[in-house]
Amino acid sequence: MADASAASDGDALGAGGASSTGQILREGMRVLGVAIRAEPRVFTISVLASALYGAMTVGTAQALGWATQHTVLPAFESGHTTAGALAGAALVILGVAFLKALGVGGRRFFAGLMQYRMQARYRRAVTRQYLRLPLAWHQRHPTGQLLSNANADVEAAWAPLAPLPMAVGVVFMLLVAAVSILLTDPVVAVVGFLVFPAIALLNVVYQRRLAPVATRAQQLRAEVSEVAHESFEGGLVVKTLGREQAETERFAARADALRDANIAVGRVRGMFDPVLEALPNLGVLAVLLIGSVRLESGAMTAGDLVHVSYLFTLLAFPIRSLGWVLAEVPRSVVGWDRVRSVLDAGGSMPYGEAELKAGAPAALRVEAVRFGYEPAEGAPPADVLRDVSFEASPGRTVAVVGPTGSGKSTLTSLLVRLVDPADGSVLLDGLDARDVRAGGIAATAALVPQQTFMFDDTVRGNITLGLDVPDERVWAALRLAQGDGFVAALPDGLDTRIGERGATLSGGQRQRLALARAVVRRPRLLVLDDATSAVDPQVEQRILAGLRESEESGAATVVVVAYRKATIALADEVVFIEHGRVSARGPHAELLERSEGYRNLVNAYERAEAEQDALDAEAEAADDVGDGDGDGDGDGDGDGDGDGAGAGAGAGEIVEETGGVGERA
Amino acid sequence: MTALSESAARESALSTLRRGLRISPEFRAGLAGTLLLALVATAGRIVVPVAVQQVIDKGLGKNGAHPDLPFIRTAVALCAVGVLMTAVSAYLMNVRLYRSSETGLAALRVKAFRHVHDLSMLTQSGERRGALVSRVTGDVDQISQFMQFGGLMIIVSAGQLVVASLLMAVYSWPLMLMVWVSFVPLAWALRRFQRMISGAYTKVRERTGDLLSVVSESVVGAAVIRAYGAEERTARRVDETVDATRSAQTRAQGLIAMTFPSSELVAALATSAVVVCGTLLGLGGHLTAGELIAFLFLVTLFVSPMQTATEVLNDAQNAIAGWRRVLSVLDTEPDVADPGADGETLPRGPIEVEFEGVGFAYPGGPPVLHGVDARIAPRSRIAIVGETGSGKTTFAKLLTRLMDPVEGEVRVDGVPLRRVRFSSLRERIVMVPQDGFLFDASLADNIRYGRADASDADLRLALTELGLADWLDGLPQGLATPVGQRGESLSAGERQLVALARAYIADPDLLVLDEATSAVDPATEVRIQRALDGVTRGRTAVSIAHRLSTAEAADEVIVFDQGRIVQRGPASELVKVPGVYADLHASWVAQRKI
After folding, report:
1. Is residue B233 situated within a structural domain?
2. Is B496 among the domain residues?
């Protein structure tokens, strides 16, 4: 069931590129519609302010024309003027400018407000969705992509909102200007009706040419960033293998491609920008040419000529905001598609209503569970777990043992319902985990994963994760996890911030905090996935002993993934997993006898040691003879791999009394 | 934060620019021609006001009733040519500028990238990784973005101011002075605004950084958040940072929204002053009507650069700050430097290592290693044991020259390690770190990191020699298996197997394993151990042992305790004497007891 939804949202992410410019524009308008519907008030205010600005831009030209006609030219012609005429001209110009200033300020502020509100709204929505979507969905999507969905894509989606009111205002302004020119002189207006549509048309061509190269540059920027991120993250590997030059070449290839794309963007921009600037200037010249003829015939005045020319100069710049909106539209559409694909992603994890009871240790039953991860493209689907069944009665401890890559960690994530099985079911207290209410399992079961994750928060915040518990309980949990010592030594104790991903702590310290995080919840089911691997053996011993005896966790059923015998020894039962199947179940001693694979796995060190001893003895013997190096090697190999039950068990017994080995050696 | 980001913080914009241009000579390529074109392009902007003036004054005649049409036609035609020339030179200037700046930036990016890899591991990890990535991405992009918009704008605007002022002065210098004077308070106010705006944007960037890190936690920590039902808490944290970002943005926007009205008002003030004073001057016979009107057009040429200045200056500051950060990376001397061509190349063959009086302390920290003297004979297999924090890993890092000792010396085959060329060093000494980082590529590509020219057959052979053939066969896509980001499609143990194979195929003479098999199951570990014994025969091998089984198989064990070597000898002998090793061994035995 998880598989079907994956395919569909994968497609949605890839799509969006294969549509025509017209389609993109329509799509872009739809996106803008979403914003307008979401923030109608802010949008209206910003458009009104922009319209005021537009009208007053035309008004500025009109005021200047008026001042020329009524104050300047009469003064020059008659040789005298009055203070009143001068003051009138100044006041008209200032008055118009005041309204224009109001318009421009309002437009900028409210346009920004709208853009930021929409960004905030969708960042929130996308992250909420991340928190809601099941882990299976997360596993299918790379981290980098999810980060850019919440950040860059949201930004891109709402980028046209900043110039949008201006563009709407410009449309209004053009109408006012058209009327104003028409009223002045219909013949001159023809020039305007040629020039303005030409600018608009050129803008569309411009954006159409720019969009693909700009998109490519955008994509390459992301690729450059990905390479840098991965390469620096793997810095130690790069260094230890001396791969600096190869990595630099890998990076340079992307950086050069980005350079070429940026130059291509520059070329388009460099061509259209000057042309767009030249057009209104040519318009002014045409107005002068035609206007002077009209002037001769007395159809217009010199003031009219100034007014119309000035209008052309003033409109030249704002008209280009239409282009800015159009420029952002393709990016916006792609960004929006990506955001939508997150918001529309199906495959949510349905919850039931059932309530798990509190108090007593939980009863866990795993019934015929099958699970497979989403296969990579073109790969055959492969099950990680098949027909896995076992149970853990309340208060009991079950150890899950198996070779590397056999599916143990996957199993632990099924137990606490991070993922759901494809077939079969996980039952807690007899209830199918899928029927339990939201949050019910988190309140009952705690998983300590193999790889710890720490938040950029205080030690306390990392342990409680919002759970309201007194500090005494936090300390008690830390004591049990053998972490109280180092936390007490931190400068601010529980209040110490531990930095991004717990960067200031060692692996072992992080694991101890992760254990405390689980234990402080007094879970009824505790699942430990090789959770003490980075802790020294001695410390691990103390933790494990503590887990068994402590009040804090005493009331829990425990499932523990382990390799160490001492850990396995805590278990009432062992589930031995090989290749995703339960190949044997039972008490440790019984499995040792019954299962060869199990015996080989858990007794591996002892066997190796026994062989080593045998080798040493042989070498000693050989030394006496004075020869026989390669010989011993061959023998050792044969013993280790091929031999069956007797040898393995035997080896195990020998080392049971390791003191003896030491003495003998 | 750290030395790396702080070093050049207080440098002036101009000296950053100078240094930047010195490091990237590509920027200067053809600069003279570009500037010449810029001059032409700017001069072209005054064509229109001049045309208006000429037409009104000369073409329209005294009362405007009888325009001199042939004159007007000639003037308009000449001006049209001027406008077209302007467009052409603007195009050429743009393209030249983009090409030289992008070429320079790409080279700068690559140079900085390489430099980051040349920095010691200590410097690399001292810096937040995201910050280092920004140095070669966002910071350079910022300069590029500025070059594509603002840089051009600054050149053109400055030219426009100069040319407009000159022409104004030609028409009437008193009016020009008046315009200048009315813009002085604006320039002052804009400068203040600009400072506030740049402060506000710094806030926005900080808030956005917080936002990103919280969002990234909610993505990377998805499993923990779900397992512990911490969704609500995470959502609250996201909300806080989203809101903080939004209000910082709104504040910055409010400041910007104030700059525009003020320049509009000042422009109107200047315009009306020109109308009033110009008319009065005209009455005194100092100015014609056409000149006055041309003057009014020139005032608009004066306003627009002022308006864009605030935004462009802000971009410019960001770009300069970004540039400064990139340069400061390049300024950071690699404290573990490649001796380069002067260094020595070691001949191939088993390696002998000597530590003499070696001590080490992390910067600002207490010493973690003191007076370490050790000789590791060629072809010997050494296990290093000790508790966490005893100095084992530090020893391995000094041995592979990931760090240099603060005192004493490490020698390989008698040559001080600092004198060995990296190309030789990294070929002959390879370390497998505990956390096997894998690149987002196929299994085969990842192993080939160790040896680029290895064929698939070589890879298969290497895995077989390491006893991992069964594991490989169990993978549905074999060598073509994609390992995912950071190798996360594989289990932690499997990642270690790949890391081991990757180092093994590099065929080093000294192999250093830092708990390289800590996450694999005992049977596999033993199998690898045995395989390694076979394949490292004839080489020197040093392994930091997580499980004492490794120690028991080694020729010799070196025991660390609190930064010193406290014991050394074959495991079989060390276990007999009371001491650190015997204690470790007792606990190791205890955890296997059942």
Report:
1. no
2. yes
Distant-in-sequence contacts of A142-146, Cβ < 8 A, 24+ apart = A142/B440, A142/B485, A143/B216, A143/B219, A143/B220, A143/B485, A144/A226, A144/A229, A144/B485, A145/A13, A146/A342, A146/B219
Chain A residue with the nearest C-alpha to that of B87:
A274
Mutate to test the interface with A, among B201, B264, B307, B581 (most CBs of A within 10 A): B264
Q: Which two tokens stand for residue A566?
A: 């001492």
Distances (CA, A) of A265 to A18, A262, B107, B139, B583: 21, 5, 18, 19, 68
The pLDDT, as a whole number, for residue A663 is 31
Residue-wise pLDDT for A422-454, tens only, equals 899 999 999 999 999 888 888 889 899 887 888
Pairing of strands A557-561, B556-561: unpaired
Residues of B in contact with A67 (CB under 8 A): 275
Is there a contact between A452 and A502 (Cβ–Cβ < 8 Å)? yes
* Separation in Å, CA of B137 to nearest CA in chain A: 6
B318 and B363 inside one domain: no
Neighbours of B363 (CB within 10 A): 11
The whole-number pLDDT of residue A390 equals 93
Q: Structural domain of residue B91, as residue ranges?
A: 3-172+287-331
Residue B528 has φ and ψ, to the nearest 5°, of -65, -40
CATH code: domain of residue B137: 1.20.1560.10
Q: Are residues B323 and B404 in the same domain?
A: no
Judge if B319 and B421 occupy the same domain.
no
What three-state secondary structure class fits A386? strand
User: What is the CA B334 to chain-centroid distance, rounded?
Assistant: 16
Q: Which residues of B266-302 are buried (b: 16+ CB within 10 A; e: fewer)?
A: bbbbbbbbbbbbbbebbeeeebbbbbbbbbbbbbbbb
Q: What are the 10-residue block averages of pLDDT along chain B, 594 residues in total?
A: 45 80 84 85 78 74 64 85 89 88 91 89 70 82 79 76 85 88 84 83 84 84 85 90 93 86 86 88 83 82 72 77 86 83 84 92 82 90 84 88 91 91 88 84 91 91 88 86 82 87 90 83 81 79 82 87 90 87 82 62
My answer on whether B51 and B147 are in the same domain is: yes
The answer to whether residue B270 sits within a structural domain is: no
Question: Which of A238, A243, A255 minimises the CB distance to B109?
Answer: A255
Q: Does B226 touch chain A (CB under 8 A)?
A: yes
Alpha carbons A344 and A339: distance in angstroms, whole number: 9
In degrees rounded to 5, what are phi and psi of residue A390?
-170, 170
Q: Are residues B303 and B411 in the same domain?
A: no
Q: CB-based contact (8 Å) between A420 and chain B? A: no
Same domain assignment for residues B291 and B368: no
User: In chain A, which residue's Cα lies nearest the Cα of B217?
Assistant: A455
Whether residue B517 sits in one domain with residue B393:
yes
Structural domains of chain A in order of their starting residue, each with its CATH number: 21-343 (1.20.1560.10), 364-374+381-599 (3.40.50.300), 603-664 (no CATH)
- Is the pTM higher than 0.95? The answer reads no
Least Cα separation, residue B254 to chain A (angstroms):
6
Spacing of C-alpha B200 from chain mean position: 23
**What is the spatial distance between Cα B400 and Cα B431, in angstroms, rounded to a whole number?**
7
Domain membership of residue B248 (yes or no) is no
Is the Cα dihedral A26, A30, A35, A40 positive or negative?
positive
- Residue B563, domain CATH: 3.40.50.300
Chain A positions in Cβ-Cβ contact with residue B217 (cut-off 8 Å): 455-456
- ipTM for the assembly: 0.84
- Residue pair B430/B536 in contact (Cβ under 8 Å)? The answer is no
Are B420 and B542 in a shared domain?
yes
Phi/psi class of residue A229: alpha, beta or left (left: φ > 0; alpha: ψ in -120 to 50)? alpha
**Domains of chain B: total:** 2
Say if CB B83 and CB B317 are below 8 A apart: no
Q: What is the distance between the alpha carbons of residues B549 and B377, in angstroms, rounded to a whole number?
A: 22
